[in-house]
Amino acid sequence: MIEFATPPADKKSLEEGLTFSPRFDAAGLVTAVVTDAGDGTVLMVAHMNAEALALTLETGVAHYWSRSRNTLWKKGETSGNFQHVVDVRTDCDQDALWLRVKVAGHDATCHTGRRSCFYRTVVAAGGRVRLASDGSEPQFDAQKLSK
Amino acid sequence: MIEFATPPADKKSLEEGLTFSPRFDAAGLVTAVVTDAGDGTVLMVAHMNAEALALTLETGVAHYWSRSRNTLWKKGETSGNFQHVVDVRTDCDQDALWLRVKVAGHDATCHTGRRSCFYRTVVAAGGRVRLASDGSEPQFDAQKLSK
């Protein structure tokens, strides 16, 4: 299993160096933003612990840490909608990752069956705020699959 | 100031409804992913409290909560690189936001002066991992500006 370096105390090394030293938070997690490698749509925001990150890098298939189920989570294991990783980037202070992926199966990432988790727009007017659907529909019947 | 609804206990309302009820975490924050409205590049990952989110929606210019400085942060106030918000989306369980923005000034979002904070790729091979620069250079001398 890949092991990760301890983040350096020196800010310049962290930001300008070429040592990968992800800054896991107090819960042992980094934030991962996942976009479609084809058109750049943001598909989801998830979290990874060291094991999920190592498995993702070793297998080329995205793994996460499920905070709701408190378990390692190979995305697509139930639905077949695996995420094949095209590349992984880290940000300046190495506490966030950006994965560009190609989604297999139904091309659906959201557990609601939709392609992206971001299917509602926030609309503010006259001091009030509401959501508007972008019209995207489930690509498959996610309820038929056990979670 | 815009006020936000309390998240419903009912999962279906949260995920399929049109009431915006952001799920701020224990620190009062939601995660915000920021992409360039033109080409979809992920520019940064940041955090917003209720005030930053309300100001963003009311003014159309992105505001965040700086966890390192523990203060409200109008992005670009020092550098002139304001983020003009094209749209804001929320995800299925309303604990993350996706902002599409047009960046003013030097078209640079990262405090290092680069366009995006994600300027390094994670490269894994033979059980080892390192970073590779994508070659992006600072768009301006960020060091000349006081932080």
Describe the structure.
Two copies of one chain form a homodimer. In chain A, the strands form three sheets. In chain A, strands 2-1-6-5 form a four-stranded mixed sheet, covered by helices on one side. A two-stranded antiparallel sheet of chain A has the order 3-4. The mean pLDDT of chain A is 95. Chain A contains two helices and eight strands. In chain A, a hairpin with a 5-residue loop joins strand 5 and strand 6. With 147 residues, chain A is mainly β. Helices cover 11% and strands 34% of the residues of chain A. The interface between A and B is large, with 47 and 47 residues. Strand 5 of chain A pairs antiparallel with strand 7 of chain B.
Put the structure in a nutshell:
The first copy, chain A, is mainly beta and 147 residues long. The first copy, chain A, contains two helices and eight strands. Chain A has helices spanning 11-16, 50-59; strands at residues 30-36, 42-48, 63-66, 71-74, 83-90, 96-103, 120-125, 128-133.
Helix coverage percent of chain A:
10-25%
Gyration radius of chain A, rounded:
17 Å
Multimerization state: homodimer
Termini separation of chain A comes to: 27 Å
Order of helices and strands of chain A: HEEHEEEEEE
Poorly predicted ranges of chain A: none
Strand-residue proportion of chain A: 25-35%
Mean pLDDT level of chain A: 95
Write down the overall geometry of chain A: globular
* Overall strand count of chain A: 8
- The strand order across the widest sheet of chain A is 2-1-6-5
Biggest interface and its residues per chain?
A-B, 47 and 47 residues
* Largest sheet report of chain A: 4 strands, mixed
Determine the structural class of chain A based on helices, strands and strand pairing.
mainly beta
* Number of helices, counting only DSSP H or I runs of 4 residues or more of chain A: 2
